[in-house]
From TrEMBL:
Keyword presence, DNA repair: yes
Listed GO MF terms: endonuclease activity
DNA mismatch repair protein S5 domain sequence ranges: 214-332
Record keywords, A-Z: DNA damage, DNA repair, Endonuclease, Hydrolase, Nuclease
Hydrolase recorded as keyword: yes
Entry function: This protein is involved in the repair of mismatches in DNA. It is required for dam-dependent methyl-directed DNA mismatch repair. May act as a 'molecular matchmaker', a protein that promotes the formation of a stable complex between two or more DNA-binding proteins in an ATP-dependent manner without itself being part of a final effector complex.
Family named by the database record: Belongs to the DNA mismatch repair MutL/HexB family.
Organism of this sequence: Glaciecola siphonariae
Protein name: DNA mismatch repair protein MutL
């Protein structure tokens, strides 16, 4: 008889609601790194320092030179649906920042022991907010910190055993982290990056030109075997470098596509590239590319996936054609130039 009684509906406690959201945003240590780096970029940092211990299971520290968070906003920054980046629906239609959901810090802090230390320029000293992951309680204390922000994430998933089980060996998790940092660094050559793992320096890249950053991040010969693309059609542009005809790679890891500076995996874009490269490389070769597609923010929707891996283009056909045209043209032009040079 009890079976017919419907259970009472109740609101979930914030901690649990955040942990559920974390299931979508924080898949593994690399997703934490991605979210934190995007926050540093949105804060206009010109330098970002990353320290990882034990593949990120133990510790992730990101320190930036960005605008900082004032003392009275630290607690808010850690709560869900709290953001400084959008105000209304119009803003959502036209996203220009990396973040906008106001979920990352709340999600991460619900599944780790997190401390957020910040020193905005307008404040005379730094303050630190700490959470223990047990409830959403925050403690504030004064701290020492240069202008900017540090976020330290300890013991990721310590309170969510189901998630913790999916963590792979430190080496694997670190590879994912390194890949995320490389991608983001490629999209932001004007920011200096350092990455350390277990106290060892993995790389240190100063701010510089895009070409310098590509040379640092991609295979050492990447630029030698690539041709430059600089194409524009109405409001859509595609620029960067891609493998010349017959000069592909043995692996498919030299492939980077950015849409409005955001690294994404998009089927439509990949399809256009595959089509442009059809018959251009040996069967066992992959093209390499670093391509930046830019279009007005209101011509696409980034609010498709919690981790923002996907976009929707309002004029999908047009975007596809621009990419296909731009790459095909660049490949043929590069070949013609090469033949001319051999002829001379
Ligand atoms: P979102 O990035 O979607 O706004 P987050 O949870 O990632 O949501 O961050 C919440 C807010 O905290 C941001 O809107 C921003 O105001 C502030 N914030 C987070 N990280 C930083 C940082 N490194 N520097 C300055 N402000 C930050
Ligand atoms: Mg964010």
């Amino acid at each position: 008889q009890l079976d017919n009684v419907s259970p009472a509906i109740h609101l979930l406690p914030p901690q649990l609601a955040n942990q559920i959201a974390a299931g979508e945003v924080v898949e593994r240590p690399a997703s934490v790194v991605k979210e934190l780096l995007e926050n540093s970029i949105d804060a206009k940092a010109d330098s970002i320092h990353i320290e990882i211990d034990q593949g990120g299971h133990k510790r992730i520290l990101i320190r930036d030179t960005g605008s900082g968070i004032s003392k009275d906003q630290l607690e808010l920054a850690l709560s869900r649906h709290a953001t400084s980046k959008i105000y209304n629906l119009d803003d959502l239609e036209c996203i220009t920042s990396m973040g906008f959901r106001g979920e990352a810090l709340a999600s991460i802090s619900s599944v780790s022991r997190l401390s957020l230390t910040s020193h905005p320029e307008a404040q005379s000293e730094a303050w630190q907010a700490q959470t223990q992951g047990m409830d959403m309680a925050v403690t504030l204390s004064p701290a020492a910190h240069p202008i900017g922000t540090s976020i330290e994430v300890l013991d990721l998933f310590f309170n969510t055993p189901a998630r913790r089980k999916f963590l792979r060996a430190q080496k694997t998790e670190f590879q994912h982290i390194e890949q995320v940092v490389r991608r983001i660094a490629l999209g932001h050559p004007n920011i200096a990056f350092t990455l350390k793992h277990n106290g060892k320096l993995i790389f240190k890249w100063g701010a510089g030109t895009l070409e310098q950053r590509v040379a640092a991040v991609c295979s050492p010969n990447f630029l030698t075997y690539s041709t430059r693309i600089d194409y524009r059609h109405e409001q859509i542009s595609l620029s960067g470098w891609c493998s010349c005809i017959g000069q592909g790679w043995q692996t498919n890891d030299q492939q980077y596509i950015f849409v409005n500076q955001r690294m994404i995996k998009d089927k439509l874009v990949l399809h256009a590239l595959r089509q442009a490269y059809e018959g251009m490389l040996a069967d066992n070769q992959y093209p390499g590319y670093v391509l930046f597609l830019n279009l007005p923010a209101q011509d696409m929707d980034i609010n498709v996936h919690p981790a923002k891996h996907e976009v929707r283009f309002h004029q999908a056909r047009k975007v596809h054609d621009v990419i296909f045209q731009a790459v095909s043209q660049a490949l043929l032009l590069a070949q013609a130039k090469q033949e001319q040079a051999q002829h001379d």
